[in-house]
Each structure stands twice: as structure tokens, then as C-alpha cells.
Amino acid sequence: MLLSMLVLLILNPSELLSEMLSASTDALELCIELCAIYAVWLGFMELVDASGLGEKLARLLRPLIKKIFKVEDKTTQKLIAMNISANMLGLGNASTPMGIRAMQALDDGSGKANFAMIMLIVVNATSIQLLPTTVIGLRTAAGSTSASNIILPTLISTFVTTFLGIVLVKLISKVRRKR
Amino acid sequence: MIDIYILPILFILIFVYCLFKKINTYDTFVKGAKGAIKLVVEIFPYIATILIATTLLRVSGITTFLTQILSPIFTALGIPPELVELVLLRPFTGSGSYGILENIFKVYGADSYISRCACVIMGCSETIFYVATVYISQTKVKKLLYAIPVALVCSLVGTIVACLLCKIM
Questions:
Q1: N or C, fewer C-beta in 10 Å, chain A?
Q2: Which of B47, B57, B131 sits opposite A124 (nearest CB)?
């Protein structure tokens, strides 16, 4: 950030503050949009939770979550299960509030990210969605004649990234523990 | 075009299921929605900071400079040089990378090899820095250790795989 500020100071000093302000305005607009989106999805998730479906979903994914995240706490498992299923459906904005709550539940207050937290970030940051709806929508709008022929390559590569991410986190944490 | 029905059906199913389970849908929905404003107020400073940093990187021309330096390396990895900007900005900004994607559609045509690669890259990667910032914003964590490097390496591998798959499929 400092480096880009210095470069701007030399090249275009008048733009520094105005660009920062417009980025901040963008952030505010994004947050207002997110607030609306979160209201819908948090309401939805509350229904999922209250109806017992959240629990069912968690039970379904529990073996997988136990294996990948090594988390024993039931509530945390449920939050991670909801986060991951929202991600798979391509509902990035719905998965974020669940992810934040799961991170809070995983936090041990040491100031350092623990194994499960790193795993959750990596799984989320490598994208695990099954249907790239937004991209297909944009591609159709741009006049593509076969907008959905990206689905299969997307599925394969997103599987590769997430799988590699999980393996790498496991490996690194093992090496670190040995030391 | 099945995908436009997925979300509406999902919503209707949940409401029907809740009625079936005799849950007060109104009160429950309100209870959940209440959390939205508080959450957004708490994550706003983090989103603002990451957006400001990204904008400065772009406006200062540092990304253009990096694009030029990295082009030959990307070509060697099998990634078309036309996609360098997208690959570089993808970890930082969601809306920004969708803007680049639309531009690629416009310049190369939506059905071209470049556009297909771009689509698959978008699908297999995420806004890594944004996700990491927002996720740890409500915890005491200051050190993410190896989370970001691992995510970046995976995305790069995913990008290479994406370009390869688009060539053969």
C-alpha cells in the first residue's frame, strides 16, 4: 500500500486522496448490498437451523468434516457444514456469515491461526462451487452460443485446487508439528 | 437452463418444510436477518481497507508493471499472456475481476479459447485476500501463518490446469 502511494505521489499526486475516497465509497456501497444479501440469507439459514435441517446436513457431512478439519465440537461442525454447502451451491455471499461464525467458534484466543482455521480459509479461498452460475450468466449475456461448456473443466479444476489445498495444509501442519 | 430454478425451489422447500415442522417462519426469519446489520458494520472497515489497497495498486500502475514482468513466466506455464491481469487481480477483488472478465468477452469474443480459460479460472479461484481478511476480522487472530501462500499456490496450479483443460476439452 505504501509503495503504491509513493508511486502515485510521483506520477499523479492529485489522484491519491480521491482514489482512496472512491474506493472507500465502493466499500460502503458493497457493504449496503451485502447487508441486504446477508439479511435474506441469515434469515434463510435461521430457518434451516430451526427446522433441524442444519443438524441433518451436519450429520451428513460430519465424517468428512471430522477427517478434514479435526473438529469435535457439534456446533462448530454444523457451522462448517453450512458454510461448505452454501459454497458448493455457489452462494458465496451466504457462506460468508457462516464462515465468520465458524472462525469465531474455532478461535482459541492465542492470536495465531490454528489448524482448523487455516483449513477453513484455504477451503474457502480455493472455491468449491459446483455450478458457476454467475460466470455462465455473464457469458450468456456476452453472446456465447454454448455458455455451459465451461462447467466440466471448472468442476475438474476447482476439485484439483481444493484437494491440493487440503493436502498441502495437512502436510505443512505435520511438518511443523514435528519440528 | 435448470439453474435459474435451483434457488427459488430451495427457498420454497425450506418454507414448506418449516410449515410442516410447525415453526413460526416469520419470527425465525426476523431473528436471523437481525444479525445482518451488525455483521456488516463489523466487517466494513476491513472491506474498505482491502478495497483501498487494491485500488491504489491498480491506479499507481504497479499491476500493469507486474503484468509486463510476469507475462513471459505465465506463457512458460501455459497461461495465455492475455489473462495475466485477470490472474493477478483475481485474489484481490471480486467485482474487479468480473469487470476484467467482461472486457475479455468483449475483446476476444465469448466463445474464444481465451474467454473459456478466463471463465474456468474465475470458477476455480476465489478472492483470497478478501476471504482471509473478512474471515479473521471477528477473531483475535493476527497471524495467518501459511494459509495465504497455500491458497495462492493452489490457485496458480488451478489456473494452469484450467488453461490445459480448455485446450483439450
A1: C
A2: B131
Q: What is the pLDDT of residues A71-127, one digit of tens each?
A: 888 889 999 998 998 888 777 777 888 899 999 999 988 888 899 999 999 999 987
A173 falls within a domain: yes
Closest residue on chain A to B162 (Cα): A157
Q: Per the CB < 8 Å rule, is B166 touching A153? A: yes
Taking contacts as CB-CB distances below 8 angstroms, the residues of chain A near B29 are 43-44, 46-47
* ipTM value: 0.83
Spatial contact of A162 and A126, defined as CB atoms under 8 Å apart: yes
pLDDT at B157: 94
Nearest by CB: B154 against A103, A145, A165: A165
Percentage of chain A beyond pLDDT 70 is: 98
Q: Which three cell numbers stand for residue A45?
A: 439459514
SS3 B59: helix
Picking from A115, A114, A50, the residue whose alpha carbon sits closest to that of residue A82 is: A50
CB contact under 8 A, B3 and A131: yes
In a domain? residue A11: no
Cα A82 to chain centroid distance, Å, stands at: 12
pTM: 0.85
Please classify residue B12 by burial: count the beta carbons closer than 10 Å to its beta carbon, then call 0-12 exposed, 13-18 middle and 19+ buried: exposed
Residue A127 lies in a domain: yes
Q: Kindly state whether residue A9 falls inside one of the protein's structural domains.
A: no
Range of the domain at A47: 17-178
